[in-house]
Recover the amino acids of this structure.
């Protein structure tokens, strides 16, 4: 009898094991009920949007176009979850090679290029890769797969020019005592840089017709030594403030301003912290905003080729006094802000070329 019972127990156990093996595994949901596992839970994660950035010669650390473009891409990386890869060309001849390498890879959802120097090679590469999306910051390439972001540099330059002119006229800054000259150091003698120069000169002379504005060009974006030499000549001729639109070369302007104990104005990003005692302000060119906006459009599926313009009205251009130790009277700030409002409203149309400055001044009189 004991043997029979033992056999029955063994058969029951065997049947239980067989039944258990045939059942479907279950998972517990948040509500505590059971359900079959979701097959999608084991699916591969969605592929990240992949962005490529090609800096201009000079690379990161220029506190200008490269750093701003990189900041916009890093913001997109943090907020939009994109994957970022970037390269830093050493020479202008590297641009086309690097653009082609990224486009040939076939994995980039967007390739970000920067400035005038990359415009010509991009026109070739984008035409050869019509399915690849590109943006170019600060230049225009007219192709159906390229979004071109351009800025109204002359508007921001006009504001810092007005600031400089008013400081010479109304402030009690000891560095400016008896001085009636200001200068602009440009990176290269090209139309886009002359927008900075024309805007600055127009702004200075609009508020202070007795001022003289001088300008010169470095010939490159990563040559602070030459920029320093040019600034030394300008300060020697009586300039109290020098504005630069020279990329990484502009650091030489700041070095000379410090040595002369005179003043300078930065560009593109807020450069005031580089030397707060001698940099009175910076003209802001929000290349970072443009880069982020273009990337977001790709992520959202709303990428649009063509020209996108950013000025004071779109908050793509501005100026900043933050971080400077130079004391700017509130009365001067108020006047600059009033001029800003006039530009945004369209009452002031800032010249974009040097030959337009004299006609602008002849037709516009400043009234405080």
């Amino acid at each position: 009898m004991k043997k029979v019972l033992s056999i029955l127990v063994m058969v029951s156990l065997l049947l239980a094991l067989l039944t258990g093996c045939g059942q479907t595994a279950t998972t517990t949901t948040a509500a505590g009920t059971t359900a079959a596992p979701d097959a999608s839970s084991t699916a591969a994660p969605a592929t990240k949007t992949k962005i490529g950035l090609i800096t201009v010669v000079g690379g990161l650390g220029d506190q200008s176009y490269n750093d701003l473009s990189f900041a916009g891409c890093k913001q997109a990386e943090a907020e939009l979850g994109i994957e970022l890869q970037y390269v830093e060309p050493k020479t202008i001849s590297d641009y086309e090679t690097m653009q082609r390498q990224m486009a040939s890879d076939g994995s980039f959802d967007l390739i970000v290029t920067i400035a005038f120097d990359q415009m010509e090679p991009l026109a070739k590469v984008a035409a050869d890769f019509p399915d690849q999306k590109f943006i170019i910051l600060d230049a225009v390439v007219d192709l159906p797969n390229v979004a071109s972001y351009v800025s109204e540099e002359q508007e921001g330059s006009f504001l810092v020019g007005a600031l400089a002119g008013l400081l010479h006229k109304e402030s009690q800054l000891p560095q400016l005592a008896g001085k009636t000259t200001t200068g602009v150091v440009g990176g290269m003698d090209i139309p886009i840089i002359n927008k900075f120069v024309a805007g600055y000169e127009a702004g200075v002379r609009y508020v202070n017709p007795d001022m003289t504005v001088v300008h010169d060009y470095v010939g490159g974006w990563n040559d602070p030594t030459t920029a320093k030499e040019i600034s030394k000549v300008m300060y020697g001729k009586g300039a109290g403030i020098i504005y630069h639109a020279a990329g990484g070369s502009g650091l030489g302007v700041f070095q000379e301003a410090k040595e002369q104990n005179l003043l300078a104005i930065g560009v593109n990003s807020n450069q005031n912290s580089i030397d707060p005692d001698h940099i009175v302000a910076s003209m802001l060119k929000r290349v970072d905003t443009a880069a982020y906006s273009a990337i977001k459009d790709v992520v959202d599926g709303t990428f649009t080729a063509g020209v996108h313009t950013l000025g004071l009205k779109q908050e793509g251009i501005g100026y900043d006094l933050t971080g400077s130790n130079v004391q700017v009277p509130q009365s001067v700030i108020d006047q600059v802000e009033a001029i800003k409002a006039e530009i945004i409203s369209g009452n002031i149309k800032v010249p974009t070329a040097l030959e337009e400055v004299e006609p602008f001044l002849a037709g516009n009189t400043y009234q405080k």
Remarks:
- Residues 153-284+329-363 form a domain with the Rossmann fold fold (CATH 3.40.50.2300).
- Residues 1-45 have pLDDT under 50 and may be disordered.
- The chain has two domains: 50-151, 153-284+329-363.
